[in-house]
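Preliminary data (for renewal application), magnesium ion complex.
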Amino acid sequence: MICDRKSVQKTKFDAGNFWNMNNMENIRIIAFDADDTLWENENFYLETEMKFCELMSGFMPVKKVREELLKTEIANIGIYGYGAKSFILSMIETAIRISESKVDAKTIQMIIKTGRDLINMPVKLLDGVESTLMNLQKKYKLVLATKGDLLDQERKLRNSGLAQYFSHVEVMSNKRKSDYVQLIQKLGVMPHEFLMVGNTVKSDIIPVIEAGGKAVHIPFHITWEHEQADSSVTEFIKIEKIMDLVSL
Ligand SMILES: [Mg+2]
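Predicted structure:
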């Protein structure tokens, strides 16, 4: 996955404005994105992508390999969805295409191995996640709302030790406005009683606001290029650390 290494702009958080501007007192459910909101993810994908680029360097310059891989990934989202298995298939497909079918079975085997290593990466919680969830669950119903491969996300949740804090887990095939409308209905609350917390403006923030919910953005230092937002929606709060949710 190609990342944007530009540093993310952070706004200074103002709790007073937060309450006035966003009328958050009605919130009953707080939903959390998982990857790069609760635990590290994108850096593992980036490492895997670099290994793939090395394996393919005999066929194409690294920059071009990354572009080709991203193109394949985006084209495959509608077929395979998000997550590690889809990523592995996209690497193999890209290898065959850019080598004009000359890539050997041993290299394909190594690509599959790097993909398996990605799936087996340890779950590394981000700072303050567990204490924040522990605190918030006293007052709110907490939900995990993540995109990706079902088995992979279930495994990560199990290994994270965080499952106990969530009263509902939703592994979503996509995070569009309609997906959030469905989720909010399923949870039995009104949209304005639903708050989403996540690292991706395009998936965790904009569609939630469009669905009538509230959203808090916690940027992670890298974001997959396909998840870069190009919208001018600004009616959401940006905080630097997950712990800032508690101080509200
Ligand atoms: Mg995320």
